[in-house]
Amino acid sequence: MTRAEWKKVLVVEKILDGHMTNAEGAAALGLGVRQVIRLKKKYVEEGGAQALAHGNRGRKPKHAIPEEVKDHVVELYTTTYHGSNNCHFAELLEEHESIKLSTPSVRRILLSKGIKQAKPRRRKKAHQPRQRKPQAGMLWQIDATPYAWLEDRAPSFTLHAAIDDATGTVVGAVFRPTECREGYSLVMMQGIPEYGVPLGLYSDKHTIFRSPHETLSLEQELAGETKPLSDFGKAMAELHIEHIKALSPQAKGRIERLWGTFQDRLVIELRLLGVKTIEEANEALPKLLEKHNRKFAVQPKQAESAYMEPDPSVKLEHVFTARKYRKLGHGNTLSYNGKVYTFAKPCKFRFDARATVEVRETLTGEVLVWHHGQAIALKETEKPVRDPATPTKKAEPAPPRKPAANHPWRLAWSPKQLQRNTNFAPGQVT
């Protein structure tokens, strides 16, 4: 019996012994007089103190989870869903096993078998978090993280992703072997056609995003020089996206917390799908992102979107490229990465001899010349090959020539010497 039930027993016994009135007992228990009278009657008719105990004590509730279900849940966790947190495990049970349990119920079942949550709950931070942007598309945060996404089924590789700051929507993601410009470019090429061009992009200070020589001296600033941009930075400038570089990981906490969620959930989802390679992981990623966004994305404070409509004439595959400058040689040829290229078709532009042109290489390996906002296709041509059997002759030096006696080099400056060397008459010298 509980302490409150024992208190009722003592009060009822004092009333029956004549030491308290019904009104005094009701005041002591905080009940009405009629309720005290019913307790007295129950005590007398049903045999003492045990009659005042709760009637359901010792009985199993009708809505209690059967032991068979509990054992099945524990077995599923230890064999198939191990490593998942309680909330994710409850979702997976409903999705894959048609077992609908609340997160607290799952937690109690696992704790009763001595199974604790794989990762501790994230505690609330003492500092005030930065407020979300009010409109979708005002700011994207982009980053990459290496992790054993396929556990021991494949080597570790890197996930590149971008998240909208206002809604928490993951706008694009891709797996790559390492952190690279191609991975970030693919993320942007996924998100822009789907959502639009964001106003700003928040990243770290990796050299993919900035040039290592972007710090200008005072003399360079006074001379009007601008900061050099990386290939990715040039793409952002071409799309008119403000590129902001964070000074610390905490500054872009939205995407840093996303990595914790993905490392907790994505690993389990990829395991359940039987993914074993990075190619299979990229194929499964779009559906997993849709599932993630349905659960975690929120509504922005303002319904109006800040996304800019992408220009239909701009091809993103021509924007997110590697960029170099080359000089045109004879026959409009240029050298790039050890290969010689020329125009694939007659070009409508006229280039001067030895003109400097911008060469862009797309993510698919296509090489083109970018001129006045237009892409000029190139084709690879063969280098001139010399016949090794024909020896190259070096130019022989010219034979020495002895100037004549009357050569100007032999003429002296004095009139007497000039007359003697040229046998001119004195009157002939002018």
From TrEMBL:
GO BP field: DNA integration
Biased composition annotated in UniProt, kind: Polar residues: 416-430
Gene Ontology MF annotations: nucleic acid binding
Biased composition (Basic residues): 116-133
TM stretches of this protein: none
Top-rank taxon, per record: Bacteria
Location of region: Disordered: 116-135, 379-430
PROSITE patterns the record matches: INTEGRASE
InterPro entries (UniProt xref): Homeodomain-like_sf, Integrase_cat-core, ISNCY_transpos, RNaseH-like_sf, RNaseH_sf
Residue span, Integrase catalytic domain: 130-318
NCBIfam families per record: transpos_ISNCY_2
Name of this protein: Transposase
Species, as recorded: Thermobacillus composti (strain DSM 18247 / JCM 13945 / KWC4)
